[in-house]
Specification:
- The structure is a single chain.
- This protein has helices at residues 3-9, 36-42, 56-64, 80-88, 100-109; strands at residues 13-16, 29-32, 48-51, 69-72, 92-95, 113-114.
- By secondary structure, it is α/β, with parallel strands linked by helices.
- It is built from 5 helices and 6 strands, in the order H-E-E-H-E-H-E-H-E-H-E.
- It has a single domain, classed as 3-Layer(aba) Sandwich (Udp-n-acetylmuramoylalanyl-d-glutamate--2,6- Diaminopimelate Ligase, Chain: A, domain 1).
Length: 117
């Protein structure tokens, strides 16, 4: 699934787009979590991270796992520190007013699989 499709499905807002060819990235899996320790334990491949955690720890965890697309649910705002970190690390940040549950369901029903644990 490409970024434009994700944005359209979840009525998302692209917060940062550091890469030139944004829609060349194709995502096949997603993982929804607010506990970054669970991300470290279960994420073993590149995927979209869906979270409501707007703390720099979420971005640092994503960086360690080579996750370059994060969806922030529940209308959360991204602060400047997080925005700067994302740009430095070529991360795509998206916000949406949907809940984590709704985002997960919408993307799953449109072909984005979950990680198998």
């Amino acid at each position: 699934m490409k970024i434009n499709e994700i944005l359209n499905l979840i009525k998302g807002k692209l917060v940062t787009s550091p890469c030139e060819n944004l829609n060349e990235n194709v995502y096949l899996k997603a993982f929804a979590c607010d506990l970054m320790s669970d991300c470290l334990a279960f994420v073993n491949e590149n995927c979209v991270l869906i979270t409501g955690l707007t703390h720099p720890q979420a971005l640092r965890t994503a960086e360690m796992l080579d996750i370059d697309c994060i969806i922030f649910a529940r209308g959360k705002n991204i602060n400047q520190e997080m925005l700067d970190f994302a740009i430095r690390n070529n991360m795509i940040l998206i916000t949406t007013n949907y809940t984590v549950y709704e985002v997960s369901g919408i993307l799953y029903n449109n072909g984005l699989e979950g990680l198998r644990i």
